[in-house]
């Protein structure tokens, strides 16, 4: 069973046009096609994905593009955190991975997330 199988009825009841799932604690987006067992006991947020543009942007297309780039970078950073939350920890438990294998698969997440955070700040 996938995560979406569990939340689809609620999304339909709320009449969400573009439902998105997030980890409640970290705000990281959740892959709705992930196995539901990986999120056992984790609180999730279900939100409408299509949010209106920030009114500060007005009609300036360039500012809207920059806002979209910033929003995409924030989503990317949250997605990197999701890798750790959804896959890194469960894989380590389930597969009893060797430390070298574990590091080769997931050691890159933190440095890239740090770089992404620097881009967001600037």
UniProtKB/TrEMBL annotation:
Q: What is this protein called?
A: DH domain-containing protein
Outline the extent of the DH domain. Answer: 61-122
Recorded hits in InterPro entries, A to Z, give: DBL_dom_sf, DH_dom
Alphabetized GO MF terms? guanyl-nucleotide exchange factor activity
Pfam entry (one): RhoGEF
């Amino acid at each position: 069973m996938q995560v979406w199988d569990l939340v689809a009825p609620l999304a339909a009841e709320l009449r969400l046009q573009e439902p998105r799932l997030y980890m409640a604690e970290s705000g990281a987006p959740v892959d709705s096609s992930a196995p539901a067992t990986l999120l056992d006991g984790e609180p999730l947020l279900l939100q409408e994905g299509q949010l209106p543009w920030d009114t500060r942007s007005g009609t300036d297309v360039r500012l809207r593009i920059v806002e979209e780039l910033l929003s995409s970078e924030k989503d990317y950073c949250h997605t990197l955190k999701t890798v750790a939350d959804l896959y890194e920890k469960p894989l380590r438990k389930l597969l009893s991975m060797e430390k070298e294998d574990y590091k080769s698969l997931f050691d890159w997440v933190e440095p890239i997330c740090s770089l992404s955070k620097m881009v967001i700040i600037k």
